[in-house]
Amino acid sequence: MAAKASRLSRFNVASLTLGLAFLYLPILILVIYSFNASRLVTVWGGWSLRWYQEFFNDRAMIDAAWMSLRVGATSATVATVLGTLAAVALSRGHGFRGRMLFSGMLYAPLVMPEVITGLSLLLLFVAFDAERGFWTVTIAHTTLTMCFVAVVVQSRLVSLDRSLEEAAMDLGCDPLRAFVMVTLPLIAPAVVAGWMLAFTLSLDDLVIASFTTGPGSATLPIRIYSEVRLGVKPEINAICTLVIGLIAVVIVVASLASKLSSDRGESAAPL
Questions:
Q1: What mean pLDDT is predicted for residues 137-163?
Q2: Is 5 within a domain?
Q3: CA–CA separation, 126 vs 186, rounded Å?
Q4: Is the residue at 13 inside a domain?
Q5: How many whole angstroms separate alpha carbon 88 and alpha carbon 188?
Q6: How many Å is the Cα radius of gyration of the chain?
Q7: Staple 196 to which of 25, 39, 246, 254, CB 3.0 to 4.6 Å?
Q8: Which structural domain range is residue 139 located in?
Q9: What is the CATH number of the domain that holds 91?
Q10: Neighbour tally for 260: CB within 10 Å
Q11: pTM reported for the whole predicted model
Q12: Angle at the Cα of 112 (from 107 to 118), degrees rounded to 5?
């Protein structure tokens, strides 16, 4: 039995190692080669920060990165507000008519292919003769990420003890003030985690942004994709390394917020 358990243990360790290597070894290679001094991507020429300097001197890339950050922050904020309100409606309004339809429409982007979502939004903007640019990309990303925020916040609201909010109303608070003063602080870690997730998804999106962007409003993923089509430059490795670092920081912060909620005996969707 001990030998069998040992074999199983070695098998599990090997499986975990291979799985992690499959997922993260390409990323590790990309990060290492971002410090490559050679102009050739596949030839190692020593350690250097040359391509990071090239990135910060590339005005088009900087503008695209700034556009992605603006779109991500704006769409994540709007999606967090709308997603939180939608989560409150779903968790508190069990008896209103059309709840099932509302829930299905809210969660549809979770399972719908991004190509269909992007094409649908493109046709909508064309029908309204809207000029494609910053706001069209922001609206599209808000549509994509709002459902993720609703899932995270609703998971916290479902297990929330409503007696605390009812006690506040018994003491003289109106429903809005009771929600702001009592419920919102309790669900704050889930709201923060939802914002971080929405920001990460917006920063990473390529498909929907390619349908809804316009001249002068290309996001960083679109810019990187257009550069890669002409050949991979070492500068791309540096840009991708910076993006990986930013996303890693966002995910760690969201995970810590979710863990803080769990340590307090609350329930937030773990990341």
A1: 89
A2: no
A3: 42
A4: no
A5: 13
A6: 23
A7: 254
A8: 58-263
A9: 1.10.3720.10
A10: 15
A11: 0.81
A12: 110
Domain-located, residue 114: yes
Tally Cβ neighbours within 10 Å of residue 18. Answer: 11
- Which 3 state secondary structure label does DSSP give 47? strand
Q: Give the bridge partners for 43, in sequence order.
A: none
Whole-angstrom distance, CA of residue 134 vs CA of residue 113: 22
Residue 175 included in any domain: yes
When pLDDT is cut at 50, 70 and 90, the band that residue 258 belongs to is low
Task: Round to whole Å and give the CA distance between 113 and 31.
Answer: 30
Q: What is the pLDDT of residues 215-248, one digit of tens each?
A: 878 898 898 888 877 777 788 888 888 888 887 8
Structural domain total, the chain: 1
Q: What are phi and psi for residue 161, nearest 5 degrees?
A: -75, 105
- Averaged pLDDT of the chain: 83
39: region left, alpha or beta (phi > 0 left; psi from -120 to 50 alpha) = alpha
- 163: Cβ–Cβ under 8 A, 6 or more apart, which residues? none
| DSSP SS3 for 46 | coil
Query: What are the DSSP calls for 101-152, one per residue?
Result: HHHHHHHHHHHS-HHHHHHHHHHHHHHTTPPPSHHHHHHHHHHHHHHHHHHH
User: What's the whole-number mean pLDDT along residues 162-182?
Assistant: 80
- Identify which of 222, 216, 255 has the alpha carbon closest to the alpha carbon of residue 239: 222
Query: Burial code of 233-251, b = ≥16 C-beta within 10 A, e = fewer?
Result: ebbbbbbbbbbeebeeebe
Q: Which two tokens stand for residue 130?
A: 């809207």
pLDDT in tens, 67-122: 999 999 999 999 999 999 999 888 877 667 777 888 888 888 888 888 999 999 99
Q: How far apart are CA 236 and CA 213, in angstroms?
A: 21
